[in-house]
Specification:
The complex is a heterodimer of chains A (159) and B (1100). With 159 residues, chain A is an alpha/beta fold. Chain A has a single domain, classed as Rossmann fold, CATH 3.40.50. Chain A has helices at residues 30-39, 61-69, 90-108, 125-142; strands at 21-26, 48-53, 74-79, 115-119. A four-stranded parallel β-sheet of chain A has the order 2-1-3-4, with helices on both faces. In chain B, helix 13 (501-519) crosses helix 25 and helix 17 runs antiparallel to helix 28 (1087-1095). Chain B has 28 helices and 49 strands. The two termini of chain B are 27 Å apart. In chain B, 26% of the residues lie in helices and 21% in strands. In chain B, the strands form 16 sheets. Chain B has a five-stranded mixed β-sheet, sandwiched between helices. Chain B has a five-stranded parallel β-sheet with strand order 12-19-13-14-15. A five-stranded parallel β-sheet of chain B has the order 29-28-27-33-44. By secondary structure, chain B is α/β, with parallel strands linked by helices. The interface between A and B is large, with 59 and 63 residues.
Chain lengths: 159, 1100
C-alpha cells in the first residue's frame, strides 16, 4: 500500500507507548474486511488483537469494560453497514448499546474515545486498515489507560 | 507494500542457484547459529532466521549485484574482520556475522544519504531512509531519479531476455540508458523495469519508441491499473489469482516466469489450458446479464473526450471504499475534490435506438448522489432527468429523502455538454421552466448509462436455440418471465429485460422452481452421503489441546518466528501437544492431525494459520474424521490478520501471533461438543391467498411433488386478476386465469379451501399446525412445513375528484370493464381526462403503485382503438413505464394522447358546474393554469394493502413495513423470504406489482419453500442461544429483540421463563448480549469463551 506508508509507524522506535487495542469484529463483514486487508497486504500497526463474534449485536458491554480492566488501552467494535446486518438488525442494537457504553465510560472517567464503533464491509480492506491506523494513533495520543485496571486503586473508591 | 529485498527465500528450487558444491555450511548470524546449503549468500542465510538485512538492489528473482551497499555486514573469522555486502558474499563455515553494529549503521546512513541526493523524491529510498533513521541528506541533491541499483537492467536482461537497457557512462556520468541513447525498438514495453524500480522512475518510460500500455483494471473501470496476475475483484469466487494471458510476457514470448519460481505453493501452472467439459443436464438456466450502454456517449456527452465526464459505473467505483480513490470523491482528471456534480439520466435509454427504459438508472443515480453527499456534505448534486422512476418498493420514500437532503432534480435533457479548457469543468446547457436557455458549470458529470443486451447474448442464444426479442434481449413467455422460447431452458436477470436486483433475484429463484418441476423425479439422486467414524464421547473431561501452527510456506513463516510460537504454545494451560507444519491444510498434514488426535488423546484442536472463513470447514472435517465433534476446533488467524499485515516488523508479528494463539487456546479450553438439532419436516405447504400469486406458488409446488393447502377467503379463486382483461402487452388475461384455476382444481396434490380463513398458526419451520375455518361454520386442522403468504391487496377507493358523486368519474379498473363490455357511455365520449397518482405518492400512501401509469396508457390506447378521434389528457407527476413498457408510452404520445405534468403541491381540481365536468390543472412546464372539460374523468387509483395484513402478520409473527405491506428479510437479496425460517411472501401482499411480476415472485417462493420441503429433516444452526431457566426472570427482553421470533416467554411451573426455539434461532447472539440476568448464553460464543479470550489480554 503505497499511499499509506507515510503514516506508518512500525519503524518508528522513538514513540515509547504502544497501545493495546482489542477489536471485536462481526464474522460476516468486518472480520472479512480484516482478511481482505491481509490478502491485499495493507500494512497497519500491530497493536490490535481480534476477537471474532457472530454479530456486533452479540457484544455485551461487559466485554468492553472487562477488556479495559484486563489491560487494553482501547476497544474497537466493528459491524456491518446499516441495513447490511447478516442477522437483520443486530448492528442497530449494537449501535444503541455503544452510545450508552460511551456515556458510561465518560461517567466513570475514562476517555470515551478509547472505545470506538465502526462499519466495515467484507469488501473494505483499505477502510479497515485506515481505521486501525487512525485508532492506534488516537489512543497513542491518549496514552496508557492507568485507571480502572485490575489491581489498580480505583479513584472512585476515594469518595 | 511488499518489502522486496527482504523476503525469505531459499534458492534450492531455483535453476539459477548460486551454489557450487553440495553440502552445508554452518555460521552464526547475530549470535544465532545458522546452517544453510553451501553457496547460499549471507543475505539469504540471514533471512532463514528472520533477520532482515536492509537492501535496495537485491531481488530474489534476479542475480545479486551488490550495488546499493546497504546490506553490508561485519564478518569475523579466525580473528580477522571484514565488512562485506551480504547479498554477494557467500556464507562460509565459521563465519561470525554481525548485521547491525554502530559502524554498519553509519555506513548505511551515509549510503542512503547519497541515494537521497540522487533521488530525493523516491518513495522506496525515503522509506528505507526512515527505517534507517535518516531524515535528510548532507549532499547536494541531483534529482537523477535513479540510484543505479541495476534492478531494471538485470530484469530486462535476465528475465525478459531483451537487454534493452544497460549502464552507460562512467563515474559521475553513469546512468541507465539504451545503446547510443537511441529510443529502443526492441523494447516490449512490458513494464517489468518500471515495476521493479525502487524509485518508480518515469525516465524508464522514455527509453522505448513504443508508448507505454497501461494495463487497466476492468473491475475498477480502468480508473486504476492492475498487474498481469491479479484477483479480478475483492469478492471473486473463487478468490484465486489468474494470469491475463493476453498481456503476460511469459505467454507472449516464453520469458520471465518469475511467478512460477517464487510461488511457494507451486500453484502457477503455465500449461493449464481451457478444457471442454461435457455435462449432462435436464434443464438449463441462462442468467448471462446485460452490458452497460456504450453507444454515442463520446460524441453527444463528451465521454472519453472530457476528463471529468464519467459513467455511473465508474462513479460507483469512485465512491467505493475499495475503489481507485479509496472512497474519496475525486475527479478522475486531476484528482481534486469536485464541488458540483451533475448526473445526466437516460443515457442510452428512452431514445430512438433504445426505445426502452433501463429501469435502474433513476434509483442508482439517486443513490450515488446520496452517497457522494455522505462522503462530502457540501457537495452540490443535480440530476437531469425526464421522469424519476422510483417505482420499486420503498423507492419513492428514498427519492423524497434525496430531495430533502438537498439533491436537485431538473426535468430536462441537457442540450449540450462542453468542457471549459482551463479548469476542465463541464458546462451543461439546458432550458429551464420558462424555456430559457441556461448555462451551468459543474466540476464533474456522471452519465447514467442504461443497460443493453450483452454483446455475447446473440451468439449464446443461437447456440442454445433461443429467440431474441426485437431489442436483442432473450424473449420470454407471456405471464411467465422466466420461461424462454425453448422448453426446458429458463432465463433470469437482465438478459431478458433491464431490471433491478430484487426482481433479478426473484426471477432467478423462479427459474430454479421451473427447473425443479422438470427434475423432480431425479431430485437428490446424485448425492452420496459421507461416512464418519462414531463420535467419541466424554469431551467434558479436562481439555487436552493440540495446537498446529502453520508456516504457510513463507506466508507466515517468512515474517513470524513459527518455532518460537510453537515453543511458547507448549506451555499454555491445557496444551498437551504443539507442532508446526509447512502447510497445515495439505493432505498429509490432515492425515497427521487425525493420527495425532488419536495418539495424544487430544480432545480440542487449535490450528494457527489463515482465516477460518476459508479453512475452518476443512479442519472441522478433519477433526470429525478423527472422531471428534467438529465444534471442538478453534482457529487463530496468524496470516491474514498478522503476518501479511506486519511484514516489516517480524518481532511485532511474532508477538501478535503468540497472543492470537494464546487467545484461541483459551477459547478452545472452554469449547463444548455441539449438535445441529434435527427437526422432522412435514413435506406439505400452506398457501394463504388464492389470487394468481397463490395459485402459481401452489401449482409450482405441486408440480415439484409437494402437497399444498390453498386457502382463499373469497368464494372463488382469482383475486384481483378477475377484474383484469388485458395488460399493456397481452390480451387474454381471463383465459389465462381460467386455465390456471382449472389446473389448480385438477391437481390432486392441491387441496383448495374457499370461503376460508386461517384462524391460528402454531409451530415452527417444518412443523406448523394451522386451524382453518371454512364457511365460518366448520374448522379443519392442517399440518404443514412451510407457509406462503399471498394475500394480495386492494384497489384504493378514491375519496376525491367527485368519485362516487358524479357517475362520469370512474377508476381505471372500471373503465377497463366498460371498454371490454363496450359500454355505450364510453363509445360516445369525445374527451377523457385521466388523473394519475390518486391514492399513491401522497401523505397517506407515500409509495408508488407501480402499475397505474401503464394502466392509464393501456386504457388510452384501447380508447383510441375504439374511437381514434377521442381526446385524451393524462395528468401525471412522473410517467413510470419502466422496461419495455416505455414503448407504449411512446405509442400513446404518437397517437396524440396529451401528457400534462402537475406538481404534488398543485394538484388538479375537479368541479361539476352546469352539468359539465371541469378539470383545472396547473401545467408545471408552462407554469400556467389550464382548464379541460372532459366527458369522462378516469382516476388512476393506487393499490392499498389488504386490511387483513395486520391480523395475518400478528398471527405469523412476521413484520409489515410502514405502508402496511409485508416486509421481507432483505429487500435486495432475500426478496421473498421472511426473516422467520419457513415463511415466504409473494404477490401484492409484498408490494404493488404487475401480474407477471407477481407470478415470478410466486414461483420464487415455491423454489425457496422447496429448499425446506425437499428434505425430510431440517438441521438447525449449531451455534444458537440457550437459556439457564434458573437464572431467567422472564423479563422478555430477549424475546422482543429476536428478529427471528425464536425466543418466547413461556410459563413453566408458575414461573415465566424464556424459551429458545432451536429450529428458528440463527445464532446472532443479540438476546445473549441483552440478557440482564445472565440467563442467556450462546453455544460456540459462550460468555466463558469470550471472557476467557479477554482474560488472556492481561499477558499481552
Amino acid at each position: 500500500m503505497k499511499h499509506e506508508s507515510n503514516e506508518r509507524t512500525s519503524f518508528d522506535k522513538s514513540k515509547s507507548f504502544e497501545p493495546k487495542i482489542v477489536a471485536f469484529l462481526c464474522n460476516w463483514c468486518s472480520y472479512a474486511g480484516a482478511d481482505l486487508a491481509g490478502v491485499s497486504r495493507f500494512q497497519y500497526p500491530a497493536n490490535i488483537r481480534i476477537i471474532k463474534v457472530p454479530c456486533s449485536g452479540r457484544i455485551n458491554p461487559l466485554y468492553i469494560v472487562k477488556a479495559l480492566y484486563n489491560g487494553v488501552d482501547g476497544v474497537l467494535v466493528s459491524g456491518c453497514h446499516p441495513g447490511d446486518c447478516h442477522y437483520i438488525s443486530g448492528n442497530y442494537f449494537a449501535r444503541r448499546k455503544f452510545a450508552l457504553v460511551k456515556k458510561f465510560l465518560e461517567y466513570v472517567g475514562i476517555e470515551s474515545e478509547r472505545v470506538q464503533f465502526s462499519w466495515v464491509s467484507a469488501a473494505e480492506g483499505v477502510r479497515f486498515a485506515q481505521i486501525i491506523d487512525k485508532l492506534t494513533n488516537e489512543i497513542r495520543k491518549l496514552g496508557p489507560l492507568t485507571y480502572f485496571r485490575k489491581g489498580s486503586t480505583c479513584k472512585g473508591d476515594q469518595t | 507494500m511488499k518489502n522486496r529485498g527482504s523476503t525469505k527465500k531459499e534458492m534450492k528450487s531455483r535453476p539459477r542457484a548460486t551454489r557450487q558444491k553440495e553440502g552445508s555450511t554452518s555460521l552464526t548470524i547475530d549470535g544465532i547459529p545458522v546452517k544453510v546449503e553451501r553457496g547460499t549468500t549471507i543475505l539469504q542465510a540471514a533471512s532463514t532466521v528472520n533477520i532482515k538485512i536492509p537492501t535496495l538492489c537485491y531481488n530474489e528473482a534476479l542475480s545479486p549485484y551488490g550495488a546499493c551497499r546497504l546490506c553490508v555486514v561485519e564478518i569475523t573469522k579466525n580473528g580477522w574482520r571484514k565488512i562485506q555486502a551480504s547479498c554477494i558474499c557467500r556464507a562460509e563455515d565459521g563465519y561470525d556475522v554481525q548485521t547491525s553494529t554502530p559502524e554498519l549503521e553509519n555506513i548505511r546512513k551515509t549510503m542512503i544519504e547519497l541515494m537521497i541526493a540522487r533521488a530525493p523524491e523516491s518513495k522506496g529510498v525515503l522509506e528505507m531512509a526512515e527505517r534507517l533513521g535518516v531524515k535528510r541528506t548532507r549532499f547536494t541533491p541531483r534529482n537523477d531519479d535513479c540510484i543505479l541499483c541495476g534492478l531494471c537492467v538485470r530484469m530486462c536482461a535476465e528475465r525478459m531476455g531483451q537487454s534493452v537497457i544497460g549502464f552507460a557512462g562512467r563515474g559521475d556520468e553513469r546512468k541507465i540508458s539504451t545503446p547510443f541513447d537511441i529510443q529502443s525498438e526492441k523494447c516490449l514495453v512490458c513494464g517489468a523495469c518500471f515495476s521493479i524500480c525502487p524509485c518508480a522512475s518515469d525516465n524508464l518510460r522514455k527509453l522505448s519508441k513504443k508508448p507505454p500500455r497501461p494495463l487497466n483494471d476492468e473491475f475498477d473501470q480502468g480508473l486504476r491499473q492492475r498487474s498481469v496476475i491479479h484477483i479480478p475483484f475483492p469478492q471473486a469466487v473463487p478468490n484465486a489469482a489468474i494470469i491475463d494471458k493476453r498481456h503476460c510476457v511469459h505467454f507472449l514470448g516464453d520469458r520471465c516466469g518469475i511467478c512460477q519460481d517464487l510461488c511457494e505453493a507451486k500453484a502457477i501452472d503455465f500449461d493449464q489450458n481451457d478444457r471442454l467439459i461435457d455435462v449432462r443436464v435436464g434443464s438449463i438456466i441462462v442468467s448471462s446479464g446485460s452490458d452497460v450502454y456504450k453507444g454515442k456517449m463520446r460524441r453527444e456527452f463528451g465521454y472519453g473526450r472530457y476528463d471529468n465526464v464519467v459513467t455511473s459505473i465508474e462513479f460507483e467505483r469512485i465512491l467505493s471504499a475499495s475503489g481507485p480513490f479509496y472512497g474519496h470523491v475525486l475527479r478522475p482528471g486531476d484528482r481534486t475534490e469536485p464541488r458540483r456534480i451533475a448526473f445526466v439520466q437516460c443515457v442510452g435509454s428512452r431514445e430512438e435506438a433504445h426505445d426502452y427504459c433501463s429501469s435502474v438508472c433513476c434509483m442508482y443515480a439517486t443513490k450515488e448522489a446520496i452517497i457522494a453527499k455522505d462522503h462530502a456534505p457540501l457537495l452540490d448534486c443535480t440530476i437531469f432527468c425526464m421522469d424519476i422512476r422510483a417505482f420499486g418498493k420503498g423507492f419513492d420514500e428514498y427519492y423524497e429523502k434525496a430531495m430533502k437532503s438537498g439533491i436537485h432534480y431538473i426535468r430536462c435533457r441537457p442540450a449540450s455538454i462542453d468542457e471549459v479548457p482551463d479548469t476542465k469543468n463541464i458546462v451543461i446547457k439546458y432550458s429551464d421552466e420558462n424555456e430559457r436557455a441556461v448555462l451551468e458549470e459543474y466540476d464533474m458529470v456522471v452519465l447514467s448509462c442504461g443497460l443493453e443486451p450483452s454483446q455475447h447474448l446473440a451468439n449464446l442464444a443461437g447456440r442454445l436455440g433461443l429467440d431474441l426479442n426485437k431489442r436483442g434481449f432473450l424473449r420470454t413467455t407471456a405471464f411467465s418471465s422466466m420461461e424462454s422460447s425453448r422448453n426446458g431452458i429458463f432465463v433470469c436477470g437482465p438478459c431478458t429485460e433491464p431490471k433491478d436486483i430484487p426482481e433479478t433475484v426473484t426471477q432467478s429463484s423462479a427459474a430454479a422452481a421451473k427447473a425443479m418441476e422438470l427434475l423432480k423425479d431425479v431430485r437428490g439422486t446424485q448425492i452420496t452421503a459421507k461416512q464418519y467414524p462414531p463420535e467419541l464421547p466424554a469431551y467434558d473431561q479436562e481439555p487436552r489441546i493440540g495446537v498446529f501452527v502453520c508456516h504457510c510456506g513463507i506466508n507466515i513463516g517468512g515474517y513470524v518466528d513459527v518455532p518460537q510460537v510453537v515453543e511458547y504454545t507448549k506451555n499454555l494451560p491445557g496444551v498437551v501437544y504443539a507442532e508446526s507444519n509447512l502447510y497445515t491444510c495439505s493432505q498429509d498434514s490432515q492425515k497427521r492431525i487425525v493420527e495425532l488426535i488419536g495418539k495424544h488423546k487430544l480432545n480440542r484442536v487449535v490450528v494457527a494459520s489463515c482465516t477460518p472463513r476459508t479453512h475452518e470447514p476443512l479442519f472441522r472435517e478433519t477433526v470429525r474424521e478423527a472422531g471428534l465433534n467438529p465444534y471442538l476446533f478453534e482457529m487463530a488467524n496468524i496470516r491474514d490478520q498478522c503476518s501479511w499485515i506486519h511484514m516489516n516488523d517480524p518481532l511485532a508479528a511474532t508477538r501478535k501471533a503468540r497472543d492470537l494463539v494464546r487467545m484461541a487456546v483459551a477459547k478452545a479450553g472452554a469449547l463444548a461438543a455441539l449438535k445441529r438439532v434435527e427437526i422432522k419436516v412435514k413435506q406439505k405447504a400452506m398457501v394463504i391467498g388464492g389470487g394468481v400469486a397463490g395459485m402459481a406458488a401452489s401449482l409450482s409446488l405441486a408440480r415439484q411433488g409437494f402437497e399444498v393447502i390453498l386457502v382463499e377467503k373469497e368464494h372463488e379463486l382469482g383475486g384481483n386478476t378477475r377484474y383484469i382483461y388485458y395488460t399493456i402487452d397481452e390480451n387474454g388475461v381471463q383465459n389465462f386465469l381460467e386455465n390456471m384455476v382449472r389446473e389448480v382444481y385438477d391437481n390432486k396434490l392441491i387441496t383448495v379451501y374457499t370461503n376460508a380463513n386461517v384462524e391460528g398458526v402454531s409451530g415452527f419451520v417444518g412443523n406448523y399446525v394451522s386451524e382453518i375455518s371454512i364457511d365460518t361454520k366448520s374448522r379443519v386442522k392442517c399440518e404443514h412445513g412451510v407457509i406462503i403468504v399471498a394475500t394480495g391487496a386492494q384497489e384504493f377507493v378514491p375519496d376525491e375528484y367527485l368519485y362516487g358523486q358524479d357517475e362520469r368519474v370512474v377508476t381505471q379498473r372500471e373503465l377497463e370493464q366498460m371498454l371490454v363490455q363496450r359500454d355505450p357511455t364510453v363509445s360516445g365520449v369525445k374527451s377523457v381526462v385521466m388523473i394519475q397518482c390518486v391514492g399513491s405518492r401522497d401523505d397517506d400512501h407515500v409509495y408508488c403503485s407501480r402499475r397505474c401509469c401503464s394502466q392509464a396508457i393501456k386504457n388510452s390506447l384501447r380508447l383510441l382503438e375504439m374511437n381514434p378521434m377521442v381526446k385524451i389528457y393524462v395528468l401525471y407527476r412522473d410517467i413510470r413505464t419502466y422496461g419495455f413498457k416505455e414503448e407504449f408510452y411512446t405509442e400513446a404520445r404518437e397517437k396524440g394522447v396529451l401528457f400534462i405534468r402537475y406538481d404534488s403541491s398543485n394538484r388538479p381540481a375537479v368541479h361539476s358546474d352546469n352539468g359539465s365536468l371541469s378539470v383545472m390543472a396547473f401545467e408545471a412546464l408552462m407554469q400556467e393554469n389550464i382548464e379541460i372539460k372532459p366527458d369522462l374523468l378516469v382516476l388512476s387509483a393506487g393499490i392499498v394493502p389488504s386490511v387483513d395484513n395486520r391480523r395475518i402478520a400478528k398471527m405469523l409473527k412476521v413484520p409489515l413495513n410502514s405502508d402496511g405491506y409485508f416486509l421481507e428479510a432483505h429487500v435486495k437479496l432475500r426478496p421473498v423470504d421472511f426473516a422467520t425460517e419457513g415463511i415466504f411472501v409473494a404477490g401484492l401482499a409484498h408490494s404493488p406489482k404487475f401480474i407477471d411480476e407477481a407470478i415470478a415472485q410466486a414461483f420464487a417462493t415455491a423454489a425457496r419453500a422447496a429448499t425446506i420441503l425437499s428434505k425430510d429433516k431440517y438441521y438447525a444452526e449449531a451455534t444458537i442461544a440457550h437459556v439457564n431457566e434458573e437464572l431467567c426472570v422472564g423479563c422478555g427482553l430477549c424475546s422482543n429483540l429476536c428478529p427471528y421470533e425464536a425466543v418466547e416467554i413461556q410459563v413453566k411451573e408458575g414461573k415465566r421463563v424464556s424459551q429458545v426455539n432451536e429450529a428458528l434461532c440463527k445464532g446472532c447472539g443479540t438476546c445473549v448480549a441483552a440478557c440482564a440476568s445472565g440467563a442467556m448464553d450462546q453455544y460456540g460464543f459462550t460468555k466463558r469463551q469470550i471472557l476467557g479470550m479477554i482474560g488472556t489480554l492481561r499477558e499481552w
